[in-house]
Amino acid sequence: MEVTTIKTLGELKQFGYASRSIKVELRENLIAHLKNKTTPFTGVIGYENTVLPELERAILSMHNINLLGLRGQAKTRIARAMVNLLDPFIPVVSGSEINDDPLQPISKFAIDLIAEMADKTPISWLAREERFFEKLSTPDVSVSDLIGDIDPIKAANLKLSYADPRVLHFGMIPRANRCIFVINELPDLQARIQVSLFNILQEGDIQIRGFKLRLPIDIQCVFTANPEDYTNRGSIVTPLKDRIGSQILTHYPKDIETAKKITAQESGQQILPIKVPELARDLLEQISFEARESDYIDAKSGVSARMSITAFQNLMSTAERRLLLSDEESTTIRLSDFTGIYPAITGKVELVYEGEQEGADFVAQHLLESAIKTLFDARFPKIKKLEKKDAEGPYDPLLLWFFESEGFELLEDFSDSMYRDQLDRITPLTALLKEYAPGVDKETNYFLKELVLWGLVANNKLSKHSFSNGTEFKDLYGSYINGL
Q1: pTM of the model
Q2: What are phi and psi of 225, to 5 degrees?
Q3: d(Cα 239, Cα 217) in Å, to the nearest integer?
Q4: Each residue of 122-156: pLDDT tens digit?
Q5: Which residue ranges form the domains of the chain, and what is each CATH number?
């Protein structure tokens, strides 16, 4: 028998339905997942050994939870994923504003209705997706919004005095009875509003305009907060922190592989005839890692995972635009395409004073060059700042090629064949890759060739000039000497 076919309180009793609080419901359903070695937190990547075990312990302890972390660390996604731990449906008294349990009613409406209709009391079923409430903390949030207030229009229409509890208008929290209620950016909530949450977290009841009203609200509270907010915009009042059972610290991806999985999952890119070398994905994620360590960027503000996601979308769109203009059927991501991701970086980072002085575009370019240098140093012989005068290095034939040439250009509108032919002109570059990067596929090979050129620029061995339609690489001093 489908439970949702039960329509009256009498039928519900005959079915043998047993009430349980939402915290017990979450706990017992989590226990079932743990026994079956499954997880309700699908789509949350990189927290398997850190955040999720702490979250599971908090749920097993039946705690209210505060997720504390910088922006773009999946705090809201984790809170929303908790819905997967709820029962598919729960019964409520039909017409109840606060999802009254038919077996344990708490509102005057439900109590009076059951007293009048007994086992014929109509019930309806609330799906798990409808049991998630979310509120973003803003300066205009009031106690009335969260808890409730007296409704003068209701009093006038029903011809009731303000002393009658039926004139009350319930706020978001009572309406979230038997549900998960999330308050995002908790420190932004004014202190006097935070105080109104004390009773709900500890005693489970509410007070409205002095009414002697005890509603044992059954609710799972989840808060999210950014540690930067504690000093910049507000703080969580100490008595409220004391009433939150578990505070869980989130974090950014700890390695490139995890970051790539997150970006691939979240980018939502359409299937395009564009090949993406794995090295290009590594470089994209390395930019975020460089940003989190950069002296130009405010580390307290953080660098959201959304930066990598939008940067990847811009990267694909840069290649797609080239593909559309060239009328070719397919293409491959080039390192020079990365200049198209700057707009995704400049709007996602908070600059410190030094960064503001240099400008957002300079910082974006600096981050790309730093990421290129990191990948270059990891894959090719390191270039020492101080070398013996007559020491022969692995890059000497390549640098000599540029010294003797007039320069080398890679234009944005090059077709794939023209792009490869242009790079193949540099014979010492081909020889260098055969020695230090043997066995790579063709797409990665050409990406590596361009990486070597950019890496030599980052190590001050070549000069690079960007212009409207491409990039020019030259010997660092040769052109100057030839001019003399």
Answers
A1: 0.85
A2: -155, 150
A3: 20
A4: 999 999 999 999 998 888 888 888 887 777 776 66
A5: 3-249 (3.40.50.300), 256-483 (no CATH)
